[in-house]
Each structure stands twice: as C-alpha cells, then as structure tokens.
C-alpha cells in the first residue's frame, strides 16, 4: 500500500486516508482514555472551545496540554491519566500538535489517529481496509519529530506484513528530543512514567478513528481483529 509522510504545514490537499501521529503524547493519552472507559473524544481547536464544549454539555470532561488549569479535568499525560475512571464519559481534548493535525485532515474520507500503543492494530486496520494511498501526518516539530516519524514509518512497514522489528523505531523515539524534554521535566503536566508509557508497543488492541459528528470531530476506538478473516472460498 502506497504511503507518504507530511508535516501539518505541508498539508495542501485533503488526503483519501490520513493517519495522524502524535506519540508524545496526545494519541497515547487518547488510547489510555479509551482504556479507562471514555466513550468518545471530541477534538477541540482551542482551549476556549474545549471549555465551552464542556460547559454546554453536562457530564463532559476537558483535557489540555501543560499544567493543570481551572475548568480542565485532566492533563495530557498517560501516567497521570491511567488511574482515572472515565466510564461512559465524553472527553474534550486540546493539545499543541496532535489535535491540530487531526483537525487539519478532518474532512478526509478516513482519518485514524495513532501512536506506538496502537501501532499494530492501526496497521492491520489499514491492511484489511485497503482503501488507497495513506498520508501519515507527522504532527510534532513541523513534521520533523523523530518519535512521530519513527512511529509512522513503523506502521507503514507493518502494513505490508506483521514481521517487523519494533526495537529500532522505539529506540529512535526514546532518543528523540521530545523524549529528552519529557524525561528532563521540561514539559508541564508530566509523570515520570510518561516516556515508557508512550513506548509500549501495541499496549491496546484497538485503532482510533476520527469522523465528523454533528459538526464536531469525534475520535472513537475501532475494534480490529488479530487475524484477518480467510478469503472466500479458501476453506
């Protein structure tokens, strides 16, 4: 399956299939949120919009990058989120790069959001779907973030088959500038386990698909079978 990589500034056309990558930390956090019971994640373009959506919908929660702030219920940290109970809740997420990238391709026919924790299921979904060329949106550092590019390249390789060694790609992510910044405490809203949690390959068994629902861009978990069903007539 053909694929290519682009940063958010390089998006000029609406792709047929977009896979938006944010390893540290938006789409690792999103996967953890689903594992903690979140039903859906609404992607907001600004913090003000996130708070307005939360205030207008009883029971909704809001999450942002950086330090805790008034009105927000959580921060963009898998280590801080993993003990939360969000059963049945809607979470509004606004981050610096990941949500920006997803909203930039929100009109694409198929949008997936991914990180290492859902890399394998994302690749299997794309392989089974066979829906055309894939545009990987590398959200960090204007499209140059090595942790995001490594994840995108890993998923791209996995789309051709399952026998791909993850270690080299994880090493690139672990030695990236984003990982160093996190490990050094240079980003607010941080837990010491965040880097390790962002590098847990295939921690979760679902992919994450974004689509338009009543003028909102909504992310939901997508079940992906471990093994593709046999072709008709093969049995």
From TrEMBL:
UniProt enzyme class: hydrolase
A UniProt-annotated Pfam family: 2-ph_phosp
InterPro entries associated with the record: ComB-like (IPR005238), ComB-like_sf (IPR036702)
Cofactor: Mg(2+)
Keywords: Hydrolase, Magnesium
EC number(s) reported in the record: 3.1.3.71
Catalysed reactions listed for this entry: (2R)-O-phospho-3-sulfolactate + H2O = (2R)-3-sulfolactate + phosphate
PANTHER family associated with the record: 2-PHOSPHOSULFOLACTATE PHOSPHATASE-RELATED
Family indicated by similarity: Belongs to the ComB family.
Protein name: Probable 2-phosphosulfolactate phosphatase
């Amino acid at each position: 399956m053909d694929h290519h990589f682009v940063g958010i500034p390089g998006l000029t056309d609406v792709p047929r299939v977009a896979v938006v990558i944010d390893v540290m930390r938006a789409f690792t956090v999103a996967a953890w949120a689903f594992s903690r019971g979140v039903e859906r994640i609404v992607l907001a373009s600004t913090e003000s919009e996130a708070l307005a959506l939360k205030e207008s919908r009883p029971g909704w929660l809001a999450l942002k990058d950086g330090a805790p702030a008034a009105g927000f219920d959580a921060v963009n940290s898998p280590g801080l989120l993993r003990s939360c109970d969000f059963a049945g809740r809607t979470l509004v997420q606004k981050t610096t790069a990941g949500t920006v990238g997803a909203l930039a391709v929100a009109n694409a026919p198929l949008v997936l959001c991914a990180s290492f924790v859902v890399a394998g299921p994302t690749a299997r979904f794309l392989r089974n779907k066979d829906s055309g060329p894939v545009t990987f949106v590398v959200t960090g550092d204007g499209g140059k973030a090595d942790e995001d590019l490594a994840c995108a390249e890993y998923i791209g390789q996995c789309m051709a088959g399952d026998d791909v060694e993850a270690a080299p790609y994880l090493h690139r992510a672990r030695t990236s500038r984003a990982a160093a910044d996190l490990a050094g405490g240079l980003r607010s809203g941080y837990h010491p386990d965040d880097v390790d949690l962002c590098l847990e390959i295939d921690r979760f068994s679902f992919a994450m698909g974004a689509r338009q629902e009543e003028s909102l861009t909504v992310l939901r978990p997508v079940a992906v079978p471990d093994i593709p069903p046999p072709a008709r007539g093969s049995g």
